[in-house]
TrEMBL record, chain A:
The keyword S-adenosyl-L-methionine belongs to this UniProt entry's keyword annotation: yes
Cofactor(s) this protein requires: [4Fe-4S] cluster
Alphabetically ordered keywords of this record: Iron, Iron-sulfur, Metal-binding, S-adenosyl-L-methionine
A GO term, aspect molecular function: metal ion binding
Protein name as it appears in the record: Ribosomal peptide maturation radical SAM protein 1
GO-annotated cellular components: cytosol
Domain of life: Bacteria
Pfam families associated with the record: B12-binding
Record-annotated B12-binding domain positions: 73-209
Automatic annotation (TrEMBL), chain B:
InterPro entries the UniProt entry points to: DUF5825
Protein name: Uncharacterized protein
Domain of life according to the entry: Bacteria
One matching Pfam family: DUF5825
Length: 612, 181
């Protein structure tokens, strides 16, 4: 029973589809024929280049893939094909984008080529002579996948169409199956068990009713929904089979624009979310239970795939690193004399030794989920960290030479401008630390506590406005189908958020030219201030104040600092300490939040660059 | 900031000086032989914050050297002009290599030529890495010595008499943001 697995735009061009690589591996492990993989997203990039003489190139693809998610721009490119109406949603989303300040010029140009591409892609899929075609759909892959599936059914009604992926989790999968009849089956939830079981059942060896998470139609054409399976145990996660993707990329005209990367998964779920689900986050869907690969399996996966594909960049898709990895995995990665460049998501309360372990283990970029520097807002999120924790992470990440990527989120029910003011006034002092890559109002996401519990502050919600330009469905159906929802604004108003945006824009503009470097020779600490917006000067801190400064690197209240110094037999009057800390703050050498102070100078000089 | 003569820095072992600021008390002459260029390749690789002055003008077009730490000035007008252009073209990591198991990836984004990304495999990779840690042909086995001419043709190696130098530096420290290099 030949199977072809398809990944439509807007999967990242930099690597193969991880979900399809996993499905291919589990099918093989189960003794089933190896599925073909059709990377339609790469073909789309190539198609656009050829059609437009490279006027539309992978940079434009990337612009939509990375920047269009919250407005469905990538889905919208294919909406005209799905609805057999080239004008479907054009005026609506164009106006929506204009109101949001989003440029959809290239997306509009891409729409002109979408129908021809779908014809080409379906033709090439059918050339693999499949009896089953599986589409993996996450975020903006829904409409392109539906457009291709619809065309495929028109040309080959005998082919079975299966959908799976993040867009099929929970009620979304049933809604997708209910509203698009050309989709024969939907698999909701993790597919390691479901996919082989489905292939066997379709081959006459098993019962569709026993396939975990399967949505299907019975003989009476009535939709049936099997219960989703339990979370896959870590021992059963497979090394993905990326087939010939990299060889294919190497000869692709898109290769000149792409630096290949491995997308790997070493853990699923979120150990923090199991205890304290961040109120805005829906990314784990119905699978919050945290499971991590054993250390041997992580090393096996990394070394096998790096050797096989000769790729040194690794993007771990885990939502949070396993704490055990700091002692079990990272030291073993550190032993590899390979110039790896690894990305991991981490928790923000890491200590310098943890960051050093990450760096030694070839991690070069972290995403610590900083989200804000305002403690009261972090409390509303249930993040479990304070503003000073986050500043310390920024400082120590900079010192370790790690890229720290983060967004500043606002719009939380209960937040007030007055809580932001003391922090905003100090942002100029942080200009030498890595700024947020964006400032954004939170969106109501399915599966998040904000979504599941209207009492948390978002009782009124509707499918996000852009979905009406992607689907011709009622609000009731969209409510089951989609991931993002619009709500009346909570927390800061647009006007109240303007100072935050302005300060962060300045921060971003001045970061590369700002340094606050500290050198400690054992007798004195010298802090060289070369930050934009601050007078160029050197501060010398010695004697008991040196001890106080080193203590303050950990973050303390004045009272706490006094206790720590007393424990070291330093006798400093509290009033003197208060005055000294106030002086440091006036000079922008400490950050204060909720009466806690943390130092800002960095003990090393990492290389800062403009993004290429 | 340390102040050192070039020879002392050469002997210091640059691996321990990462992110350290060092001012060279004597100018470098990267146009004479390969030893001063070798120092610059090593300092760039270990991100030693080097402050140095250019003496003379290398024969090489400046865009071939602009991946290396640029001079802050020159000892004469021609050297000053060369130094100024070097500094203006410099971008950290724009010509580097990365070592993997059985392969090497070279990335060349220097201005003045098309961007290149080369993958060197198997025996060629081990030969390249051997060239990178040696300075004279006599230190190479015959097979690797035979590769020198090809490596020079591809712009990966400079040769002067019996000496050779792998021109891209090994990237030991990624910049912020890490994917900018």
């Amino acid at each position: 029973m030949p199977v072809t697995l398809v990944s439509m735009p807007w999967q990242s061009l930099e690597g193969p589809s991880l979900p399809l690589g996993i499905l291919r591996a589990v099918a093989t492990r189960a003794g089933l024929p190896k599925p073909e993989i059709y990377p339609a997203y790469l073909r789309w990039a190539e198609f656009l280049m050829a059609r437009t003489g490279e006027e539309i190139n992978p940079h434009d693809y990337r612009g939509i893939a990375e920047g269009g998610i919250f407005d469905g721009v990538g889905d919208w490119v294919f909406a005209g094909v799905l609805h057999r109406d080239p004008g479907f949603g054009v005026s609506g989303l164009t106006a929506h984008a204009a109101a949001r300040g989003i440029d959809v010029t290239q997306a509009l140009r891409m729409r002109e080529h979408a129908a021809d591409f779908i014809d080409l892609a379906v033709k090439e899929i059918l050339e693999t002579e499949p009896t089953i075609v599986g589409f993996s759909t996450t975020f903006m892959q829904n409409v392109p996948s539906l457009a291709a599936a619809q065309r495929l059914k028109e040309l080959a009604p005998e082919v079975t169409v299966v959908f799976g992926g993040g867009n099929c989790d929970g009620p979304m999968g049933a809604a997708l199956h209910r509203n698009f009849r050309f989709v024969d089956f939907v698999v909701s939830g993790e597919a390691e068990d479901a996919f082989p079981a489905l292939l066997r059942a379709l081959g006459g060896d098993g019962d569709l009713a026993a396939v975990p998470g399967l949505v299907w139609r019975d003989s009476g054409d009535v939709q049936r929904r099997n219960q989703q399976g339990t979370a896959i145990s870590p021992g059963r996660l497979a090394i993905p089979d990326f087939a010939d993707y990299y060889e294919r990329l190497a000869v692709s005209p898109a290769a000149a624009y792409v630096e290949p990367c491995l997308f790997l998964e070493t853990a699923r779920g979120c150990w923090w979310g199991e205890k304290h689900h961040c109120t805005f986050c829906g990314l784990n869907g119905t699978a919050m239970a945290f499971r991590a690969l054993p250390a041997d399996a992580v090393l096996d996966q990394v070394t096998t795939l790096v050797k096989r594909h000769q790729v040194l960049d690794i993007w771990m898709v885990d939502n949070i690193i396993d704490n055990a990895f700091f002692t079990s995995v990272l030291p073993r990665l550190a032993e590899l004399d390979w110039d790896l460049r690894i990305h991991y998501e981490v928790k923000a309360n890491l200590k310098p030794a943890d960051l050093a372990a990450l760096h030694a283990g070839h991690v070069r970029q972290i995403q610590p989920g900083i989200e804000s520097l305002v403690s009261s807002v972090l409390g509303l999120m249930d993040k479990g960290v304070s503003g000073t924790h986050n500043v310390r992470t920024l400082r120590d990440g900079e010192a370790t030479g790690l890229t720290v990527i983060w967004n500043w989120l606002y719009g939380f029910p209960g937040e007030t401008p007055s809580a932001y003011e003391p922090v905003l006034s100090q942002l100029p002092a942080l200009v030498h630390l890595q700024p947020p890559i964006g400032v954004a109002r939170i969106c109501l996401e399915r599966f998040s506590p904000h979504f599941d519990n209207p009492a948390l502050g978002f009782p009124e919600r509707h499918p996000a406005a852009h979905y009406q330009y992607l689907y011709a469905l009622s609000e009731e159906e969209l409510t089951d189908l989609v991931y993002m929802f619009d709500t009346p604004h909570a927390g800061l108003s647009v006007e109240q958020a303007a100072p935050l945006r302005d300060r962060c824009d300045s921060w971003l503009a001045d970061y590369n030219d700002s340094w606050l470097h500290r050198h400690d020779d054992g007798d004195a600490i010298v802090i060289e201030d070369r930050r934009k917006g601050w007078p160029e000067r050197d501060h010398r801190i010695e004697g008991v104040w040196r001890a106080a400064y080193l203590e303050l690197e950990n973050g303390h209240t004045v009272q706490g600092l006094h206790r720590r110094l007393a424990a070291q037999a330093h006798d400093v009057a509290p009033a003197s300490l208060t005055a000294w800390v106030a002086e440091l703050k006036r000079n922008g050498l400490v950050f204060e939040e909720s009466n806690r102070f943390v130092t800002l100078a960095v003990p090393s000089d990492p290389v800062k660059m403009e993004k290429a | 900031m340390y102040e050192l003569p070039p020879d002392q820095l050469r002997g210091a072992g640059l691996a321990g000086l990462t992110f350290t600021r060092v001012r060279l008390t004597e100018p470098l002459r990267p146009g004479d032989g390969l030893e001063d260029l070798r120092l610059l390749v090593a300092a760039t690789s270990h991100v030693v914050r080097l402050t140095w002055t250019l003496d003379g003008q290398p024969d090489l077009p400046v865009d071939r050297l602009c991946h290396l730490i640029p001079p802050v000035s020159g000892t004469g007008s021609a050297a000053r002009a060369y130094a100024k252009e070097w500094s203006s073209l410099h971008r950290y990591g724009c010509f580097h290599y990365r070592q993997g198991p059985g392969f090497v990836i070279v990335k060349d984004l220097r201005p003045g030529a098309d961007a290149r990304r080369m993958r060197i495999e198997d025996e060629d990779a081990s030969g390249f890495l051997r060239m990178a840690v040696t300075s004279h042909a006599g230190e190479l086995d015959p097979a690797t010595r035979d590769m020198l001419a090809d490596a020079e043709t591809f712009g990966l190696v400079l040769r002067a008499g019996d000496s050779h130098l792998v021109l891209p530096h090994r990237i030991r420290h990624f910049p912020i943001p890490a994917w900018a290099a």
